[in-house]
Fold:
Amino acid sequence: MELIAERGYRRTSLAAVAERAGLTQQGLLHHFPTKELLLIGVLEARDRWDAAAAAAGTWRTGTLAQLVDYNATRPGVVQTYTVLSADSVTEDHPAREFFETRFRAVREALAGALRAEFGDTLPGGLTPERAAPLLVAVMDGLQLQWLLDPENVDMPAAFRDFLTLLGSVAGQDDEPAEGPGQETAEEPGAGTG
Amino acid sequence: MELIAERGYRRTSLAAVAERAGLTQQGLLHHFPTKELLLIGVLEARDRWDAAAAAAGTWRTGTLAQLVDYNATRPGVVQTYTVLSADSVTEDHPAREFFETRFRAVREALAGALRAEFGDTLPGGLTPERAAPLLVAVMDGLQLQWLLDPENVDMPAAFRDFLTLLGSVAGQDDEPAEGPGQETAEEPGAGTG
DNA sequence: GTCTATAATAAGATAGAC
DNA sequence: GTCTATCTTATTATAGAC
Structure:
């Protein structure tokens, strides 16, 4: 995960991963026979690590704001997710199905969360199902801008601005816009994951 | 551009570009001495091609909605932009400065457009400067979801939903949500470009 | 389970002829 | 301006010893 965050999947060599892990390339290939299987192993590991965050039934917009706060303290993890998810749209990418499935699940989970918090109708006459992809898009899009220019893009504040547009009060009273991050909360998760 | 759209920058070989262009790898290297300079040439070419769209003084939210319509008819171009912009956040990427500068310019241009259309105050008490990164984020984030799952993500409709949240009327009367695209309008431009 | 050794390939780049 | 030929390096993957 560290190396993919730094260099992206394609530029990350098995030799580099092996070195960081403290064994040889061939030792690494004993556990993951191909580079592709290693990538899938990484994604599955992050999924397991994100198990708590994936308990979507308990998500609220305030939870999401805290997740964005947390992400703002972990640029490496955010970069992993951003680079890998975009890379996955290319032909025959081993992670394509993973992200396709994941985005669908996240949209559904967030739609459920929005419905639980706001009911069937949101500002502008939107349904939770129509607002969910926007919520996901804002999280991912802000991450890209923030990774490129953290000095000029206040990701947590911008996300709360969007929640304000959605009609949530979490944007105003939930957390200071540019707080110290959730240093205490050890909840993981990057991007919409 | 075509090949980068299909495979991403790193997976695109000089030999493949040369073949598509109808010359040998060495003939290509005569015009672009390194692969990095070729990438910069591609980005500059797209900038020139986007010159019309970059006349930001004339942008309005309706224009942006039409741009999203157009993008929905050109998955290859959108993919180029999505893959490349995300890839650019990795260490020492040759296009990093290009995208950093470009995102900053686009945010400023869109802030100006929002101010021209809505004045200094938007819904939720947002300023144009605070809404602009959200607008960019929604465009980019929707592109990623749409590229991964075009059957389930109606990018133009979702973008108009966001415009509705921003208080624009363009979302209702400007264009059918899932139109045939702007086949006549030859205006180019992918992503926030 | 980890190692050394070694394929087998593919890539970016250079030299020099025409 | 384009070509053939070649260099150099990096990468994924395999074979087989310990």
Remarks:
- Residues 23-24, 26-27, 30-31 of chain A lie near DNA strand C (CB under 10 Å from a C1').
- The first helix of chain A runs from residue 2 to 7.
- Chain A touches chain B through 51 residues (CB under 8 Å).
- The radius of gyration of chain A is 18 Å.
